[in-house]
């Protein structure tokens, strides 16, 4: 299987899981800024997509943090082996499409697969019936980019009648400051599977990866 089932009888976080799973709105959101100076400069120098670079690094970071790989599916709590990116993209009609970008170990492969996935997604019309009421893939994170706004907070649209524990990640418009290029970064997660400590550690990993853009080419 691509996942393992967590035994709630022995899981250290079981009581917290029970507490927050009973909430009508069990999600919390944290927004902060990432310093994208080195990553942006390196992408320009190497002639590669900044968009693909930070998506790839997000994939790397997600797969280093076990809480971000946990999913509530029915009565099960699952730990998935690896997580890929499901992102929104803007088509030529200026309407959103959903785009699943396959997991890839290296940046070149990720870019190649992402380009093909984007082209396919943009060429298809958006039909609500294709998504409403359908089972969601769980081995992904949901990611969007709002490149027009350097936001300081964010709230995701959500169907509260449908069980959902997939993290939601949003990148905003980068801005130049006296201390470098800052990029808004929003992370929304289910409180039943993690706390602020885990999101904080994830933020730290993201910043570490942004500070080491050479990893894209190693």
Describe the structure.
The protein is of the alpha+beta class and 218 residues long. 29% of the residues lie in helices and 28% in strands. It is built from five helices and ten strands; from the N terminus they run βαβααββββαββββα. Strands 2, 5, 6, 7, 8, 9 and 10 form a seven-stranded mixed sheet that branches. The mean pLDDT is 94.
- In whole angstroms, the N-to-C terminal distance is 30 Å
Beta-strand percent range: 25-35%
Discrete helix count: 5
Shape: globular
Low-confidence stretches: none
SSE layout and pairing:
Layout: E1 3-5, H1 14-21, E2 27-35, H2 37-46, H3 50-62, E3 70-73, E4 76-80, E5 84-90, E6 96-101, H4 107-123, E7 140-146, E8 168-172, E9 175-177, E10 180-190, H5 196-210
Highlighted features:
218 residues, alpha+beta, 3-stranded antiparallel β-sheet, 5 helices, 10 strands, globular
In summary, what is this structure?
This protein has 218 residues and is α+β, with helices and mostly antiparallel strands. Helices cover 29% and strands 28% of the residues.
């Amino acid at each position: 299987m691509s996942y393992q089932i967590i035994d709630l009888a022995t899981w250290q976080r079981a009581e917290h899981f029970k507490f927050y799973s009973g909430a009508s709105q069990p999600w919390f959101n944290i927004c902060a800024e990432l310093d994208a100076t080195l990553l942006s400069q390196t992408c320009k120098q190497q002639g590669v997509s900044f968009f693909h670079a930070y998506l790839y690094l997000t994939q790397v970071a997600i797969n280093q943090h076990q809480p971000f790989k946990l999913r509530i599916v029915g009565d099960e709590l699952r730990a998935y082996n690896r997580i890929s990116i499901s992102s929104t993209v803007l088509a030529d009609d200026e309407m959103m499409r959903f785009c699943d970008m396959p997991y890839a170990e290296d940046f070149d492969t990720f870019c190649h697969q992402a380009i093909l996935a984007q082209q396919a997604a943009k060429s298809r019309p958006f039909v609500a019936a294709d998504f409403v009421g359908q089972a969601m893939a769980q081995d992904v994170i949901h990611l969007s980019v709002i490149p027009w706004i350097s936001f300081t907070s964010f709230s995701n649209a959500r169907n509260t009648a449908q069980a959902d524990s997939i993290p939601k990640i949003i990148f905003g418009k980068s801005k130049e400051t006296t201390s470098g290029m800052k990029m808004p970064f929003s992370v929304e997660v289910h409180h039943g599977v993690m706390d602020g400590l885990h999101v904080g550690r994830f933020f730290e990993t993201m910043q570490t990866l942004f500070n080491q853009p050479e990893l894209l080419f190693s």
